[in-house]
Design goal:
Number of helices: 0
Structural class: mainly beta
Mean pLDDT: 77
Protein name: 10 kDa chaperonin
Largest sheet: 7 strands, antiparallel
Strand order of the largest sheet: 6-7-1-4-5-8-9
Pfam families: Cpn10 (PF00166)
Strand content: 35-45%
Shape: globular
Helix content: under 10%
CATH architecture: Roll
Subunit structure: Heptamer of 7 subunits arranged in a ring.
CATH class: Mainly Beta
Order of helices and strands: EEEEEEEEE
Family: Belongs to the GroES chaperonin family.
Oligomer: single chain
Radius of gyration: 15 Å
Organism: Streptomyces fradiae ATCC 10745 = DSM 40063
Amino acid sequence: MSENTHDKLPIRMLHDRVLVRSDVPEGERRSGGGILIPATAAVGKRLAWAEVVAVGQNVRTVEPGDRVLYDPEDRAEVEVRGVAYVLMRERDLHAVAADRFEGSEDSTGLYL
């Protein structure tokens, strides 16, 4: 599937809803040191990064293409054309990182 397939989703988001695609597939993952961590390993509350795919007309702080930090436990999943997405409200996002923040002098590029 091409990267631009999500650009033409057959849906329109409403109100303050944000549709994201998770960066990390569920299951096994690797630590920064290269250690394989099985999917069954218990970890504390861990937030996840995702890419914004679509936003509703009342969303003010994020745009499609931004990376956002969210709690994977508070999510509603939906599948569109065989691709899994997460649907949430804008207020459920914890942070946003975007290229458009790089040139700002008084901004770190990450809103927490």
